[in-house]
Amino acid sequence: MLRLNSVYIKGFKSFAMPTRLEISSGMTAVVGPNGSGKSNVVDAIRWIFGEQSMKNIRADSREDVIFNGSERFPPSNSAEVKLVFESEEGIFSIAREISRDGQSSYKVNDKQSRLKDIKELFQGTGVGMDIYSIVGQGQVDKVVTASPYELRALIEEAAGTAVYKERKKEALGKLAATEENLSRLEDIIFELGKQRKSLYLKAKRAEKFVEYSAKQKELKNLFFGNIARLEEEKLQTLNGDLREVRDELKDLQKKLIEGESKWSALRAEFSEVDKEIEGFTKLLEEYKKRQNDLLELKEMYSRRLNEKENRLIEISTRIDNFRSEIEDLDKRKDEIKLIIESLEQQVSDEETALSLSEEERDSLLKNYSAREREWLKHQETFESISKRLSKIENELERLENSREDTSKRLRLIENQLETKRDRFETLKEETESLAKQGKESSDKQRKVEAEVSASRERLVELDAELEKARDRLSSNESEFRRSQMERSLLQRQQEEYQGFSKAVREVFSRKESFAGLRDVVANIIQVPESFETAITVLLGYRMQDIVVDDSITAKRIIEFLKSYKIGRVTLLPIDMIEGSFRNFSRVESHPGFVNYAARLVEIPDGFEKLPVYLFGNSIVARTLDDAIEMRRSEGFIGRIVSVDGQLLSSGGSITGGFIGEETRTDLLSRKRRIQELVEREDELEKQIQLGNKQIERLRDEMTEVRGYLKALQEELNELASKGAAINRMIAELLKSAQEIEEEIAELQKLENEYTRRMEENSRKKEVLVGEQSALKEERSELQRKVEEESEELKKQKKALEQLQEKIVDTRLRLSTLYEKQEQYTKEHSSLIQKSKADQENIDLLSREVSEVESETERLRRQVADQERELTSVKKETEDLFSSIRNQREGKEQRLSALQEAEEEINEMKAEREKLREKSHKLEMHIQESEMKLSRVREELDEVEKEVEILSEEKLQDIKVELDDYENKLKFLGSVDLEAIDEYGVVDKEYQELDEQKKDLEEAKVKLIELIDKTDAKAKNIFMETFNSVNKNFSRYIEEIFDGGEGEIKIIPGEDLLETGLEITVRRPGRKIQKLQLLSGGEKALVGIALVFSLLSIKPSPFYVLDEVDAPLDDFNAERFRVLLKKHATDTQFLVVTHNKLVMEVANVLHGVTMTDGLSRVIPVELQSVETVIG
Question: Are 159 and 1098 in contact (CB under 8 A)?
Fold first, then answer.
């Protein structure tokens, strides 16, 4: 378990000399007179944990914590506080030191550290500057009057949820960075995706084009090869079929001629017999027609006869049914007539009985009504008297209750008047005290506002400096990246010999093969930047000359170029090149003379011959005018070039003008530019390091200023909140005082009113008692009369009821008889109507029977006539058939022969036409096949002769497939075949970026899950701690206030991790009150209860309490002492106190005295406490 061993103070406030306080494992008390520096010990502990608010450590500025000197002692240059702790892992220390020059530092185990490290070291232990473990003067009141969110911070520290908030903050930071990276990556993927999509479509079209073209060629070979084979076979078959058809046609023509000759002879013989038979045939047809007509007539008459006979049967049946129904109706009419006569007699008897009963009932009812009216009159009088007596009794009871209630109210009003007057005086005193506190709070608030304004201005200055530093750093980093890219590009160009001819590049790509190969001229010589243009013009294409060690190497290179047909180069063997150079003193003295070109360039060792060989006596002049003047006046005949590149040749020609890209100065400047970039990168790297350090320093300073500003803001908010609270409390107190004054006046009025009521109630009671006695006697007499009359009325009522029942029964029987009588009368009328209708139907049907019988007889006669005539026609027809059969016997033989001949001729003619048509079709097919075969052979010009033999179904499938590929190729249109390779490169890059995106999205999901889990864990831990603290707080309030009630409530909000808390307290016999309305001592006890509630959940290693018992009287101080003693076994207490009762439970007493402006610590015994504290 963590334990505080000692506190070391040096140069801090009044403790100028090194001072060490040993801390007991139980309770350590610091005692001493006012102003001796006791609270400076508390300030030192608070300061070491990073306190930024000067108010909380009772200072105006940060330098005020350093000892400022006294008459005998000079000021200290620094202040230092050190706390030594002991834990299960051993002993460690933390320290803070500040000097007058503003330098502040933190240490852990005497090693430089940060405030953040110290906070992390004690996180979740309850030790720190903003939590309940250090309670300064007046801070108990601050705890209980803290804002809802400050109260929440106490519970969170005890619960240890700060680590979860830190994790959430860190996860949110990572989430924001991930989302930013994801957004940036999505933008890149989006742009690359558009390019990829465009290339994808082109590439796919190109791939499809290649695929379809190859497949089409393969299918063409297969299809047209088979088509050619099939057409050849078909052509052979068609030619054979045509020859066979022509032969058959010739044979058929001969047979047809012979058949027609035979048919002509038979036709002549048959014509004569045919004329005789024709007459008999016409007569037979007439007989046949007459027979058919007779049959139709007979059938028609027979059908009509059947219909009439059926109708006759139907009518006879209906007549019989109607006659039977009339007989039944007559019988029913006789029955109903007898029933009606009987009912009429019963009705007459019942009506006579009913009349007699009603007369008897009317007589009884008249007598009963007279007696009932008399009884009702007496009954009303009796009830009226009873009601009046009941009202009197109720009024008497109410008056008695009212008298008792008024007495109680009078006693209560007297008590309330006394209480209200006392409360009014108390409120007046509290209002005056709060007004004084409000003025002090306003003065402090103005002072803190000035400090906040100054801190904000400093923060703005630091922010501006930080922004400038970031801009400089960003600019340097951008320049550094650009320099690296440019240098990398130049180095690659130099390594790959870009800008040089293809032959030069090929030679240097195989430089390992040539041992004596050095470099090109442009890479060997070094030229000052100002003369690069002039030297470039002088060299021209010689910049690409290759320098080698000897002629052997040169020869090998030339053979290589010849054998591979690459190109030509100029080689400069060091062992062979020579140049001539001499000084021209007259030219050198010319004002426009700059120098000889050979002397302007620098070369490595071993290449001394090269400048003279390349430039000879060539001169660099300032301007073209200077060059012309040198040629004319000095007679110099060598090449002269101006600094800007205008060339005067040795022959006198002038080459000049604008220097464009055709003059490759970059070949000379590469090497120089690479060196410049390397130097610039070194310089930028140093500037970037310095910039990062400056930004870190500014951030640290801003963090410190923000912390100070936050503390000031919290202090300002606290002061504003306190001021507002004081104003609210004053307003509430004034309002309460006014209300109490009004209540006193109301209570006095009520007291007078209740006294008057009691006197009036006494007078009313005497009157009501006299009236009650008279009414009781009158009611007894009436009650006797009512009972006698009531018995007589009951007897008469019973007789009336019996008679009424008899009348009701008679009426019911009459009603039933009336209904039956009406029902049978209606039925009798209905039967008469029905019988009449049936008789009318019988008469109608009888007339119809006579008509149908007459028509039936007529039809029977007509049918018999038709039958006789039909028999006669049949006999004549049979005779005629006998004559025709005799004539036809000879003709049938000739007719049969003629028909056979004619049929044979017709068959041969039909066969001839078929053969002619078949021949024509065969000729057309042969012509079509020959044309098709010609077209197929054209398609097979470059195709192999041998192809796979396919069936017709397979060949048809191939044709469909071939047409499909031709349509696909037409649909593709023109394509870019290079898009396939381009898409491959872009797609690879896209897939890599997409994988990165998936990784980032997965990381984002995991971070969100982590945040949710962290929130859930923090909520669970917080609620467990909150419930436990709340339970303990309620227990401590109950103990401190002898049965009082206390509760910490969660203010409703959307997020449980962000909403605030509030405290409510109810003292015994009172309502729930706001903490602001409690007395100072009561507030202190509530604060102490809250601190000990937190202690019960998660003890801090130590507690520092600075005069928290000051507002307590001896009675409450004893309760505080008991609490300290109870918990001193679990934790350490460092208590600054003046109370002797509290000192009694201390294990160690440290006395603090002040002499010559210095605070000193002396050991103290309890017996000498009164001497020490003065």
Answer: yes
